[in-house]
């Protein structure tokens, strides 16, 4: 199906474990983003990517690693999960625009609980 | 720190009434966008307004932008129960490329 899909949708893990959240888009959008959503903080940008092999930090990158070897995939890895990383994670994509960011298309989210 | 702050944090109205949400931001922007999020779902884009525009309409939505006051408002006319959701403003900073910074959102409840 066309669109942007995230997996897993729900994940429970333990402190110290490595977790990878997957994101796949079928539009060939240049830009992809990872946000986390927490009560009282809205959405905060973790990492983003302008194209394959180009990634950059957002507002809250500590404890996260990303890669983008293919345009359509943008996995987010928590190398050693902490309780403070319990959150809902959203992946999004957009086309490049020289007028600045256009519409973001969001996945349905991955709810991560770190025990 | 949040670039955009929505006001009010929560709003409860009756079906058929208008709902107004406000967004204030801190620094110069390229454009401002509004998104809706239904409970447990991803965000959906509603409307985009550029820094050189003052007002924009889309169906029952009306967005205004006042760059001198660094504020925007989203008006939903003739609200329906299906409009119950959280609404977020997001800004693209001048020189910020293609990154969006989101506010904390307004929770709208439309009661029958």
What does this structure look like?
- The complex is a heterodimer of chains A (115) and B (112).
- Chain A has 115 residues and is an all-beta fold.
- Chain A is built from no helices and 11 strands.
- Chain A has strands at residues 4-7, 10-13, 19-25, 31-38, 42-51, 54-57, 64-66, 76-78, 87-94, 105-106, 110-114.
- In chain A, strands 2, 4, 5, 6, 9, 10 and 11 form a 7-stranded mixed sheet that branches. A 4-stranded antiparallel sheet of chain A has the order 1-3-8-7, with no helix packed on it.
- In chain A, a hairpin with a 3-residue loop joins strand 4 (31-38) and strand 5 (42-51).
- By secondary structure, chain B is mainly beta.
- In chain B, 0% of the residues lie in helices and 59% in strands.
- Chain B contains no helices and 11 strands.
- In chain B, strands 2, 4, 5, 9, 10 and 11 form a 6-stranded mixed sheet that branches.
- In chain B, a hairpin with a 7-residue loop joins strand 9 (85-93) and strand 10 (101-102).
- Chain B is globular and about 45 Å long.
- The termini of chain B are far apart.
- Classes of the chains: A mainly beta (115), B mainly beta (112).
- At the A-B interface, strand 4, strand 5, strand 9 and strand 10 of A face strand 4, strand 5, strand 9 and strand 10 of B.
Specify Rg of chain B, calculated over alpha carbons. 13 Å
What is the radius of gyration of chain A?
13 Å
Major sheet of chain A: 7 strands, mixed
Low-confidence stretches of chain A: none
Walk me through the topology.
The complex is a heterodimer of chains A (115) and B (112).
Chain A: E1 4-7, E2 10-13, E3 19-25, E4 31-38, E5 42-51, E6 54-57, E7 64-66, E8 76-78, E9 87-94, E10 105-106, E11 110-114
Parallel strand pairs in A: 2-11
Antiparallel strand pairs in A: 1-3, 3-8, 4-5, 4-9, 5-6, 7-8, 9-10, 9-11
Chain B: E1 4-7, E2 10-14, E3 19-25, E4 29-37, E5 43-50, E6 55-58, E7 61-66, E8 71-76, E9 85-93, E10 101-102, E11 106-111
Parallel strand pairs in B: 2-11
Antiparallel strand pairs in B: 1-3, 3-8, 4-5, 4-9, 6-7, 7-8, 9-10, 9-11
């Amino acid at each position: 199906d066309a669109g942007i899909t995230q997996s897993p949708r729900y994940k429970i893990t333990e402190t110290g474990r490595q977790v990878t959240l997957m994101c796949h888009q079928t539009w060939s959008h240049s830009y992809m983003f990872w946000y986390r959503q927490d009560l009282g903080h809205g959405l905060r940008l973790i990492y983003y990517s302008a194209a394959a092999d180009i990634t950059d930090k957002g507002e809250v990158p500590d404890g996260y690693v990303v890669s983008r070897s293919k345009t359509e995939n943008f996995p987010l890895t928590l190398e050693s999960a902490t309780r403070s990383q319990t959150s809902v994670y959203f992946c999004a994509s957009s086309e490049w625009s020289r007028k600045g960011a256009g519409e973001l298309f969001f996945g349905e989210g991955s709810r991560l609980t770190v025990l | 720190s949040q670039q955009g702050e929505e006001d009010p944090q929560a709003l409860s109205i009756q079906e058929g009434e208008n709902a107004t949400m406000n967004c204030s931001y801190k620094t110069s922007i390229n454009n401002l966008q509004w998104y809706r999020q239904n409970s447990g779902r991803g965000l959906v884009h509603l409307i985009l307004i550029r820094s050189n525009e003052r007002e924009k309409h889309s169906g029952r939505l009306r967005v205004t932008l006042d760059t001198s006051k660094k504020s925007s408002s989203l008006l939903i006319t003739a609200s329906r129960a299906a409009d119950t959701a959280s609404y977020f403003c997001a800004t693209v900073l001048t020189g910020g490329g293609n990154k969006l910074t989101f506010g904390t959102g307004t929770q709208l409840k439309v009661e029958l």
